[in-house]
Structure formats: C-alpha cells, structure tokens
Description:
Strand 6 (140-142), helix 6 (147-164) and strand 7 (167-173) form a beta-alpha-beta unit. Helix content is 41%, strand content 19%. It has a 7-stranded mixed beta sheet, sandwiched between helices. The protein has a 5-stranded mixed beta sheet with strand order 9-11-10-13-14, sandwiched between helices. By secondary structure, it is of the alpha/beta class. The chain has helices at residues 10-20, 35-44, 60-72, 83-98, 125-129, 147-164, 174-178, 194-200, 224-244, 264-279, 297-302, 320-328, 347-357, and strands at residues 5-9, 25-28, 53-56, 77-81, 103-109, 140-142, 167-173, 180-184, 248-251, 258-261, 284-289, 291-293, 309-314, 333-338.
Amino acid sequence: MKEEIKLMKGNEAIAHAAVRYGADGYFGYPITPQSEILETLMELHPWTSTGMVVLQAESEVAAINMVYGGAGCGKKVMTSSSSPGVSLKQEGISYIAGAELPCLIVNVMRGGPGLGTIQPSQADYFQTVKGGGHGDYKLITLAPASVQEMADHVGLGFELAFKYNTPAMILADGIIGQMMEKVKLPPQHPRLTEEEIEKNTPWATLGKPKGGKQRVITSLELDPAEMERRNLKFQAKFREIEAKEVRYEEISCKDAEYLIVAFGSSARICLKAVELAREEGIKVGLLRPITLWPFPTDAINSYADKVKGMLTVELNAGQMVEDVRLAVNGKIKVEHFGRLGGIVPTPDEVLEALKKMI
C-alpha cells in the first residue's frame, strides 16, 4: 500500500491526526499560535465523513468542560489552546484528572506570563509537568520535536489517556506548531460504536443500564477516609505510569563526555550544536525527553557516572534543569542555557554555553 505523505504545519498535522485516529469530538477556542488546529478541522469537516463533532466553544473554560462531558460518556475527545488559554482550562483539567477520565489536551506554548508573546517558548514546563491545577495529580506530557511527532503523539496521547483513565497533554511550541515538514499520516481508524464504547469503558455514563446500578462520575468526595483512599489510588496509578511509560531519545551518547538535555524544538537546535562540538573534538551527546512526565530520571542518572557535566537548553529561564539536577542528585555539575521572550538560540550560542560550562 502506497504511503500517504503530505507537507503540512505541525498544527495542521494535529488536526488531520485527530480525525485519522477516530476522535469523537474536538472543543476549542482560537488563540495564536495554535489556531490552525481548529481552522483545519473546520476545513476537513469530519462531521460529514466520520461523524466527529468539531465545536468552537464560547471560551476556553467552556471548551474544557465540554471535553469533561464527552470524556464522561467514554468518547475520544480533545481540546487545544495556547498558554493563557491553558491556564483558564486548569480547573477543568484538575476535575477531569480527579474524575479519572481520559482526554487529550494540546498546548502550543507562548512566551512570558500574562498574554506574553506569540513567539516560540517552552515556558509552560512547570505548569504542565507539576500538575497545573489543584490537587495531587500528574499529567502525562508528550513533547514532540517534529511535525511527524505532532501527528504520532495524537495517537499515543489517546492510547495512554485511555490506558490509565487520565488526561494526556501534547506540549509543543510555536516552532513545532508553525513549521512545515513532510508527515506520514496514519490510516483512517473508525470511531468506536456505542456498543464498543459500552464494552471498553463500562464506567461511561451512557444511561442507566437496565437492572444495573446508576453510574456516577465525580471528583467530589466528602468522606475524608474515602478521599484518602482515592488519592492513594491516584498515586499508585502515577507510580505505575512512571515505571512503564518513560520515553526518550539518545543521540551520540555512547562516548560522550558531556551531555545536553533538551526537548522539543530546543532538541533540534542542539542536534546541530552536538555536530559542531564534535567537529572541534568535544565529545557531546544529546538526550531528548519525549515524555516530560513521566520524566526519564533513571536514564539521566545513569549518565551521572559517565559524563563530566550536563547542560539543559530550554526556551525559558530554567525549568527542566531542576528535574535534571534532581536526577543526577549532585553527582555532577548541571548548567542551564536558555533564551526568553520568543528568541530562539542558534547552535553556535549553545556551543558557546557548553564551552563555558567545560
């Protein structure tokens, strides 16, 4: 069968992949630099081909609560936004996590607090991997570094969300969302039938089954003993995810004396910096976390006895660097290099920062 390869933006790839992976519904509100996701879905009008619902809500708060409702019915639903919009969604995300419902959220990040800038940034790392909303919960976080991964992570995000009944997020930035690359689209997956949803998600609120108990989905529990039991259950689930779902990529690491740790678009810049460093005889490797939570702590720790130092490169003031320092537990020096406000560093700047650390 001939492969279907197209040239498209990262945001467009998200939209095409959502339809191809059999999503039941998308609920969103436009905000730069991710508006093409909603625009592309409207152009594809999947409601005529697969029956997928695409709706521009009246606000980000409304959109995430529509996701809550659809997820409660066992549907494969998603939303997308950019930093200020994702902040507005945090209460709903916490409710969905507390109700143990699967869904997919996309954040194409802006830079800076408040309205910030529409330029590329990775400033929402803390917000995403540390939970974002209230309560002791974690958010599965995927960090694509290419347009192909923007498409692939839609399928992976839904898979992990339904496997663990918890929200998953694709955390990208304006570079990945706006740049164009070749992408191999997945084959069309059919949407599940009501019978299949009933079988796969027996907890779904699809109406009271004849002779069965009423199904109730809520994050509210006023009995403290029961709330503690539920919280302990959440924590056990998060530990299982940390044990089974860590994903990362290692490049030129076998003989490395120094390690760069970077994710998303920063990792692509660092690939060239590694090449430039090796041309000068500096043995450098790149470790790219693909899952930001669960974080590849053990993998990074394994290099603490092999390399002389690590450098994180991020489009922020230094956020992931804290997790890398925790991973190496003080065994070696870990430095951070970043640019802020939408400025993207060059490979030469990364190399210069590496030389300063050495």
